[in-house]
Structures are given as C-alpha cells and as structure tokens.
Amino acid sequence: MKDVIFDDFQNAVDESLLRHKSILDLMSKFQESNGRINRAIAKSITNCGCIQVSGKKQNLPEDDDNINIESLKSCFNTHINGKLCDNCREVIEREMGNNLFYLTSLCNILDLNLYDVFLKEYDKINTLGKYSFR
To answer: Can you tell which superkingdom this protein's organism belongs to (predicted)?
Structure first.
C-alpha cells in the first residue's frame, strides 16, 4: 500500500511539473529549496526564537575501554533547545514539501522510482543499523 502512495505522489509531481523540465533547472531548484529549508530554520532561531542553538563541543567518554556504540549515542547532542512553534513548523514543513517535490522531479527526469530509492536507503539503514555512522 505504501508503494502506491509513493507512486501516486511521483505521478502527481510529474503531471504538475510544467516550467522546470530541464535537468539544470531542476538541479538549481532543488538546491534552492535546500537553502530555503536552512533559512526557515535559521528564522526560527533568529526571528521567532522558538528554538535556540547552543553549539559546543561534543563530549566523548574519557574511558576508552568502556566505549561502545550505545554509550556514544548518548554523548552527542543536537544543540537545539526549545520546540518549534506552530508557525515555524508550518513554514519548515512547507519548505521540506517543496524540496520533496523537486527531489521527486529529479527522480522523474532521471527515470528513477522514488519508492525504490527510499527502500534501498531503508534497507541499508536496517542492515547497517547504528553502524552506518551517519
């Protein structure tokens, strides 16, 4: 059933894309949409203030003998304090939706199936799990 949603979305994107058929156009629109996501997040911090960033060095355990993946995971921090307000959440979701549109458009123009791309990444994460080190 989930593949139907992906396929329907991919077909809807293909049908609605009129102006940006060139691969160069799509690449630049995709990159621009990445920038718009970054800007929306930055505005959540600098204009709204619903979230704050407290960037500092990630602290690793001093005792090398007892380091394992689970203990490392608890050492790392997102550096984000607070929670997105409804307005900022809506703006960021809209920008991410636009980004997904252009990613899907790139899939279409390159004759790739978005669901297949998703599944391959999902399988890789499930196979490697926490050892993917991303």
So the answer is: Bacteria
For residue 51, give the nearest of 18, 91, 98 by alpha carbon.
91
Q: How far is it, in rounded angstroms, from Cα 90 to Cα 99?
A: 14
Short-list 61, 52, 129, CA closest to 85: 52
Q: By the 8 A CB rule, do 12 and 103 touch?
A: no
Position 66 pLDDT exceeds 70: no
| Domains of the chain as residue ranges with CATH | 2-132 (1.10.287.1080)
Residue 54's SS3 state is: coil
Q: Which of 31, 37, 11 is nearest to 102 (CA)?
A: 31
Query: What confidence score (pLDDT) does residue 133 get?
Result: 65
Which pTM was predicted? 0.84
Residue carrying the six token digits 């992906």: 6
Question: Which pLDDT does position 53 carry in this prediction?
Answer: 96
The pLDDT value given to residue 1: 65
